[in-house]
């Protein structure tokens, strides 16, 4: 019985860790690698911190219910084990759901930009190393329906070719 409780706890932990994905603009998914992306120039109008709500896929609740039910069913005699097992399953489901939501919640930033044609767009992305201030030149990189905002690279002015020396006329 103890082995079953340990296995159930490990399953809950694996689900919680597996739910820790990111939407960071600094992390590019495998499906976006080696794909041609569309790049659009823009200027930041405003940025503000936001929180991306966590997922509730039901996996956390299901795993918590199993773990709580198994743990509760090992308490007392046969009748008590059944009652405590049901209570453990309910409590485990609630806790598992809360754990899933909190582990998939993410600090983010909403960036309002203006394109060169005057259109305005808003992009929400995970908080990253870059900060965006009003007036900052940025680029919007679109790949497969996903968009990320990053600072526009500095463009060096073209290097002037040296003037050709002319020979004096005779």
Molecular structure report:
It is a single chain. The chain folds into 2 domains: 1-24 and 54-104, no CATH class; 35-52 and 107-153, OB fold (Dihydrolipoamide Acetyltransferase, E2P) (Beta Barrel). The protein starts with a helix and ends in a 19-residue tail after the last strand. A hairpin with a 4-residue loop joins strand 2 (106-115) and strand 3. Helices cover 35% and strands 26% of the residues. The chain is of the alpha+beta class. The chain has 3 helices and 5 strands; from the N terminus they run αβααββββ.
Q: Gist?
A:
This is Glycine zipper domain-containing protein. It comes from Rubrivivax rivuli. The chain has about 170 residues and is an alpha+beta fold.
Strand neighbour order, sheet with most strands: 3-2-1-4-5
How many DSSP-defined strands?
5
What is the CA–CA distance across the termini? 108 Å
Gross morphology: rod-shaped
Which features characterize this protein?
170 residues; alpha+beta; OB fold (Dihydrolipoamide Acetyltransferase, E2P); 2 domains; 5-stranded antiparallel β-sheet; 5 strands; rod-shaped; Gly-zipper; signal; Glycine zipper domain-containing protein
